[in-house]
Each structure stands twice: as C-alpha cells, then as structure tokens.
Amino acid sequence: MKSPSIVTPQEWEAARQQLPVKEKAMTRARDALAAERRRMPWLAVEKAYAFDGPEGTVSLLDLFEGRRQLVVYRAFFEPGVYGWPDHACRGCSLVADQVAHVAHLNARDTTLVFASRAPQPDIERVKARMGWTMPWYTMTDEFDADFGVDEWHGTNAFIRDGDSVFRTYFVNNRGDEAMGSTWSYLDLTALGRQEAWEDSPEGYPQTPPYEWWNWHDEYGDAEPAQEWLDKIAGASAADEPTSSKGDDSPGSTGCCRPE
C-alpha cells in the first residue's frame, strides 16, 4: 500500500478545504433529487395484499399503523437463502443493523417495516438474537413479485389517502446502501422530511427544522418544550443556518453547544 504524503497541520487543512465545496454541491444535488421524488406521480395499488404479523393476518393498509407514509424493505430471510434458519441474508442483515430508531420516522407520520417469507416465529427468533426492533412481517402472496423484490432486496415507499394506497418510489441494488438513517428514509418518501426549508409542492406538510426533534422515548402529542424552542432559536440566530429553499439544508446545529 502506497500511502499519501505526510504533511503539516496547515497543509492538511488546506487540502481538506478543497473538498467541502464538492461536498456541498453533492448535498444540494441530493436535496434536488429528493425534491424530484416529491413530484413523482403516484401509482395506485389496486390489489389486496396480506401479511402475517405478530398479531395475525394484516393488509398493506394495516402496515401503515395509521400513519400517512409507509416504507417497506424486502429482506431475504427464508428457506433457500444463505444463513437460513439461523440468520437472514448477510447483506440484508447489514441493512437491518444500521436502521435508526423508528420513533423518529414515526414522528414524521412515516412507518418503516421489513418483510420476508420466513414464518413469524423464525422472524421473532432472529430479531431477538440480533437485537432488531423494527416491525417485520411475513409476505404471503405476490407482493414481492409485484413490487420488484422477489429476487433481490429493495425498498418501496407508499403513501395513503384515506384507505387508498399509492406507490411513490422504489430503490434497490446500491440505492439501498444509503438506507438506514432517518434522513435517508424520509428523503425517499413523497412528503420528504416535511421541514420548511425543503423545495416541496404547495400545500405539503412542513414544520420548522429542529422543532420536531426529540428523544426517541419522549415523542408524543405534546407541543415541543419551550426550553427546546428557545435553545434552537438562539443557536439558529448565532449560527445563521441557511434554510431557504434551494440552499443548504439544516443538519447538525449549534443547539448542541453547552450552556
């Protein structure tokens, strides 16, 4: 292995400063792509699908758990897949290992579920062994074939309007590499992160950034704590984050600065 040159701190910082310009361009391009997803046409799901879950048989609509959006990752855990019956596919297991706490998605009216063909007792056993907590259902019909995930993993996004369900987006192959974080899942959905800085069609739900963030065990119907609102207001004013449409999206903020 031929390593790069060893430099002084000043030379290292000069070299590093050449990259943030490209990184910001990539961030803006990623935001623009997510904005295009929010303008994708919707495909009505006409067929009734059935899944086995911990509480028995449920429909695709039931998987939403009453929320507006649904993200379904097709994980390969079933007879014939390498690792069965002790493990799911190694790649799908890696994806499962990096899934963030689903409470943050739920706070944005979005449900994430995994789906395989393994029976529920096997799914519960492997979830317990691996420490996975996301909802995980058993497919019982042609759902995987109809949505392009019968032979390979993939992530489908859906939205509902009342009892009507629509497919809004799909990624597979290396598109699944980025999945796992709260932000990557929300960027895949029809409504996005639902924050005010996003370029979304008129009338889409949006709230100020940061305000909705919470500890994963304290989300609820209550309004954000005033102390939190005061904290992020002061941090935002001090740091002047760019939050207008078409500019850099807010990410980490000065709100983490100690008093």
Q: Would you give an account of this structure?
A:
By secondary structure, the chain is an alpha+beta fold. The protein has 2 domains: 146 residues, Glutaredoxin; 52 residues, no CATH class. It contains 9 helices and 8 strands. The termini are far apart. About 4% of the residues have low confidence. It has an 8-stranded mixed sheet with strand order 1-8-7-4-5-6-2-3.
Spatial gap, N to C terminus: 46 Å
Specify the CATH class of the largest domain: Alpha Beta
Mean pLDDT: 91
Computed over alpha carbons, the radius of gyration is 21 Å
Largest sheet: 8 strands, mixed
- Percentage of residues in helical conformation: 25-40%
Order of helices and strands: HHEEEHEHHEHEHEEHH
Task: Give the domain tally.
Answer: 2
CATH domain fold name of the largest domain: Glutaredoxin
Give the tally of β-strands: 8
Content-based structural category: alpha+beta
Number of helices: 9
CATH superfamily label of the largest domain: Glutaredoxin
- From the spread of the alpha carbons, the general shape counts as globular
Q: Taking strands numbered 1, 2, ... along the chain, how are they ordered across the largest sheet?
A: 1-8-7-4-5-6-2-3
The appropriate CATH architecture of the largest domain is 3-Layer(aba) Sandwich
Topology of helices and strands:
Layout: H1 9-16, H2 20-37, E1 43-44, E2 50-53, E3 56-59, H3 60-63, E4 69-74, H4 90-97, H5 102-106, E5 110-116, H6 120-130, E6 136-139, H7 143-146, E7 154-161, E8 164-172, H8 182-188, H9 226-239
Parallel strand pairs: 4-5, 5-6
Antiparallel strand pairs: 1-8, 2-3, 2-6, 4-7, 7-8
